Amino acid sequence: MNHSLLTDPLMEQLQTLSTSWSLPVAAIVAAIGIFATMGLFSTKNHMPVEGRTVLLTGASEGMGRSAAIQLSQKGANVILVSRNVGRLEEALADVRAAAKNPSTQRFTYISADVSEHDYAAAVIAEAIAWNGGSSPDIVWCVAGMSTPLLWTDDDSMVAARRNMDVNYFGSAEMSRAILREWLAPENSTGPKGEPKHLVFTASMLALFAILGYGPYTPTKWALRGLADTLAMEVNYYPDNPVKVHIVYPGTIVSPGYERENQTKPDITVELEKDEPAESPDTVARRAIAGLEAGKYFVDVSFLGRLMQCGIMGGSPRNNWVLDTVMGWFIPIIYFFVLRGMNSTVVKWAREKGHPFTHPKKK
């Protein structure tokens, strides 16, 4: 594991937070940050990909495309899944060009709409046929969308159902299809076998909700609940080892982010203005590093790390001691953060007038 993936982004984000948060909060965050980086690094790769087959949904753009390219650079065979064939072909060319071992690595794409009922079984069957009768070793559900709206907006329920179909059911159906394959008795490898990996992609909004994301945030909370459930359920099959992970990205500068901003309320933009946006390459690199480190909760920023420790409940921990100690401090930080954000909301309501009177984005 490259330690700089934690220390460099950590220092950058501490500097950003210190300018946007109060001095007490910044001091607490800095202290936790120093503690979190002391002597807690592991060098073992818990998710080697060289020579293994990885299937990614949402792989034609954004984080999914970047992750596919970086996994190709590490020697993986890659199956890209998305709807748009034109973008898939472009992404496939980039993934193939990045190959670590061009003479032995294999690449393909499958066009599918993750929001369609029972789409995943056909995708897995096609992937197995292409892979010589073997299922993918790693499945990473990246496909997602966000349609920010006020909950009282006319289209909020239509958007909520669409977001749930893509973000939750798209990943839920894929996870069920691949687990039915991996956990079948005829595919047992024994408890010492190399584990398969199922990776979900949630959001920092599944850790801290913000006004304006009503159609989106519940879909990511649902994914977290599914991941927590499956992380325990796979232990029911000790001879078919599977590891479950869930990644929590923040704002990613991508085509999806551009589409999201078309409907995002102005107050939402104001509330999240201090969150640093990251490139798809950066987020993918940090996510892969977290997976290689064996994390269940995969954070891609120090802010995300803090949020995770403040809301873990009964979820599996990456490090029981560190996560517990950090969790003691988070309520103090949230006291200041929530107070500031709610003050901003009230101030905007007074200055801008009743939300029903605001012009709507198209």
From TrEMBL:
Biological processes, Gene Ontology terms: 3-keto-sphinganine metabolic process; sphingolipid biosynthetic process
CDD domains listed in its UniProt record: KDSR-like_SDR_c
Cellular component per GO, a single term: endoplasmic reticulum membrane
One of the record's GO molecular function terms: nucleotide binding
Pathways per UniProt: Sphingolipid metabolism; Lipid metabolism; sphingolipid metabolism
Chief place where the protein resides: endoplasmic reticulum
Pfam families in alphabetical order: adh_short
Alphabetized UniProt keyword annotations: Endoplasmic reticulum, Lipid metabolism, Membrane, NADP, Nucleotide-binding, Oxidoreductase, Sphingolipid metabolism, Transmembrane, Transmembrane helix
Membrane-crossing residue ranges in chain numbering: 20-42, 198-216, 320-338
EC number: 1.1.1.102
Entry annotated with the keyword Hydrolase: no
Subcellular compartments: Endoplasmic reticulum membrane
Domain of life from the UniProt record: Eukaryota
Catalytic activity: sphinganine + NADP(+) = 3-oxosphinganine + NADPH + H(+)
Keyword Thylakoid among UniProt keywords: no
Biological role: Catalyzes the reduction of 3'-oxosphinganine (3-ketodihydrosphingosine/KDS) to sphinganine (dihydrosphingosine/DHS), the second step of de novo sphingolipid biosynthesis.
PANTHER family: 3-KETODIHYDROSPHINGOSINE REDUCTASE
Family according to the record: Belongs to the short-chain dehydrogenases/reductases (SDR) family.
Listed name of the protein: 3-dehydrosphinganine reductase
Lineage, uppermost ranks: Eukaryota, Fungi, Dikarya, Ascomycota, Pezizomycotina
